[in-house]
Structure prediction request, 228 residues.
Amino acid sequence: MNYFKTEEKDISISNPVDITREYNNGFVLTRKSKGNLIQTRSLRIKLTDFELSSENRRILNKNPDLKLDFQLLPLGNYSWQIHNLGKTFYTERFGDGTMSASKIKEMFTETDKSNMNSVFVYKYLSSVNDFADGYALSYENDQIIHYAYPFYSLEIPKEKNLGMAMMLNAINYSKEKGKEFIYLGSVVEKKSLYKLQFSGLEWFNTETKQWETDLEKLKDLVEHSDTD
Prediction:
């Protein structure tokens, strides 16, 4: 899969200060290889400015028994059901070959190869499954969290909007933990515009190399790029 990027680099990710600086410069860690980053039209929430909207609350109210468990990687109780769940999700939502089962397993279990160091695990208290209903991998340090590669059971009723509920719970968690920013990936296609429903949003303009808050300008850029 090709991603929109204006620069790419490889660095050591042993120093969290270096990673935070790179994220502040519009770079994000990728799944390609350890230490690989690309500069893209990154999206983040300044968590001191984030407040739940009425629509955010409506979604959370649809999922009152959704429990979040934040765990460090590698995941000790990893099982094949996790990469099976992820592979099914990405294939059905985005097409065959989008995300392999082996890459999902690697990100959960091989921290010497993966940039992700933590994971949001979601499960309904009423669930009868032996494993979780959803997962979202993440990079976390004292200042930031990058919420990445979410997937969940497609058997959950669509009206619950589990994907958005997962993201909202992660945002709330990050704010409660005193993080400065949560990064939500990039916004380069129309299908990414659903991410623009939060307060406190900033996006990285790859032309000016600055963070901006004008979401209408971002929408125009996305609309234009989709018609090119």
Remarks:
- Residues 4 and 40 are 6 Å apart (CA to CA).
- The first helix runs from residue 16 to 24.
- The two ends are 19 Å apart (CA to CA).
- The mean pLDDT is 95.
